[in-house]
Amino acid sequence: MPRRRIKSRSEIPAKQRLIEAALALIVENGGCRGVNLRQIAARADCAHTNVYNYFASLEELFWAAVLLAIDFQLGDLATQMSSPAAASDPLRHFLTTQVSLAQSHPTLYRLCWLEPLDGPAPAGVLERFGGMRQNWERFVGARFAALRSRTDPEWARQIIHGYFHGELCKLIGRHAFLPPSDDDRARIVANTLALIDLVATAKKSP
């Protein structure tokens, strides 16, 4: 079987090079603040004036970087969930993978969830977030079904994701001060599983 030829940098479309350069600089910088068009264009081997051939503004380019970051996370999740280890306990593996991703790539998590970008999110970004939501519905919903839960599923998922997301925000917020810890991962996953079982039997407040 012939080897797949790796494309040279010049063969990658300029628009894609700009998006990848923007994301790389955001990761190196720890966020969008301080990243500008000239830096991105230089990293992508483009004249900074050419950026406007593809993006109306720096903010639009940042949103494209968000889309790339989400696709990276969804791709990693799909790979992890197709492994044999996920078959025995899919929900635990799903949660563990999410925590590990945030620990390994804290800037990507902040970019997707916390970076204060201007304007409404583009349709493509909203579509990807919809894919993330479907993952939660699938794995948490399977647990609710196993417990024969009669609680309001949307209300329950809001509570569960609110706790989980809050824990990850705290985790990556102190990432610069403490190294990633398996103890943190195990604690967050165990607490989330316990919360799922607890909420499954709760009633929505009037």
Describe this structure as you would to a colleague.
It is a single chain. This protein has 206 residues and is mainly α. The chain has a single domain, classed as Tetracycline Repressor, domain 2. Helix content is 68%, strand content 0%. It contains 9 helices and no strands. Mean pLDDT is 89; it is low at 1-6.
The secondary-structure class comes to: mainly alpha
Q: Could you tell me how far the N terminus lies from the C terminus, measured between alpha carbons in angstroms? A: 63 Å
The top level CATH class name = Mainly Alpha
CATH topology: Tetracycline Repressor, domain 2
Q: How many individual helices?
A: 9
Low-confidence parts:
1-6
CATH-scheme architecture: Orthogonal Bundle
How would you characterize the largest beta sheet?
none
Provide the fold topology.
Elements: H1 14-29, H2 37-43, H3 58-81, H4 84-88, H5 90-104, H6 106-113, H7 123-147, H8 153-173, H9 182-200
Nutshell version of this structure?
The chain contains nine helices and no strands.
Provide the descriptors you would attach to this structure in a database record.
9 helices, single chain, 206 residues, mainly alpha, disordered N terminus, Tetracycline Repressor, domain 2
